[in-house]
């Protein structure tokens, strides 16, 4: 269960882990990646149970990152964009792949989301 503060008041609302059904806003896991074949599976494993969908945006990997994701997580939506040396612009480009009515969990491709913090 994820607790978050609602806008403008002190009450808290709850999101749920994916396996628990209730009314909620969808959570999209968004990962921008380049050449992370050694770490990407750990990153995906850490968010797969809390995200309704995962979108990975590859920015020009020359290793096996994309192939590894395709063979281990066929539900991950993979997009490709050319890297431009402007991180903010690249992050905004990644956000264009996410529907407007969803929450976004933006995780770096070498980060592991700790489930211990999702309480």
Describe the structure.
- By secondary structure, the protein is of the alpha/beta class.
- It contains three helices and six strands; from the N terminus they run βββαβαβαβ.
- The strands form two sheets. It has a four-stranded parallel beta sheet with strand order 5-4-3-6, with helices on both faces. It has a two-stranded antiparallel ribbon with strand order 1-2.
- The protein is globular.
- The model has no long low-confidence stretch (mean pLDDT 84).
The gist of it:
The chain is an alpha/beta fold. The chain contains three helices and six strands; from the N terminus they run βββαβαβαβ.
Gyration radius, rounded: 15 Å
N-to-C terminal Cα separation, in Å?
A: 6 Å
Read across the widest sheet, the strand sequence of neighbours is 5-4-3-6
Number of alpha- plus pi-helical segments? 3
The secondary-structure element order is EEEHEHEHE
User: What is the number of strand segments?
Assistant: 6
Helix/strand/pairing category: alpha/beta
Q: What global shape is seen?
A: globular
Report helical residue fraction. 10-25%
The amount of beta strand, in percent, is 25-35%
